[in-house]
Task: inverse folding
């Protein structure tokens, strides 16, 4: 792999990280992390958070987007 191709991949990776950061910053306004299937366990001084419902919804949305993109470029 030459440097120009590696540079392009690093740019794409950087843009992906920025997009993920923006989504994480905005997702709290839509109730993610506070859905009925998101569990919080308090054990002593430790807190364990399992966002089960949020992860399932995000997975469904990303799967639908990926399927649309794949069908468009086929």
Result:
């Amino acid at each position: 792999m030459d440097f120009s191709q590696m540079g392009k991949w690093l740019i794409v990776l950087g843009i992906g990280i920025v997009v993920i950061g923006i989504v994480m910053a905005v997702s709290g306004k839509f109730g993610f992390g506070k859905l009925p299937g998101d569990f919080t366990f308090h054990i002593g001084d430790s807190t364990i958070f399992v966002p089960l419902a949020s992860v399932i919804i995000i997975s469904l949305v990303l799967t639908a987007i990926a399927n649309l993109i794949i069908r468009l470029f086929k």
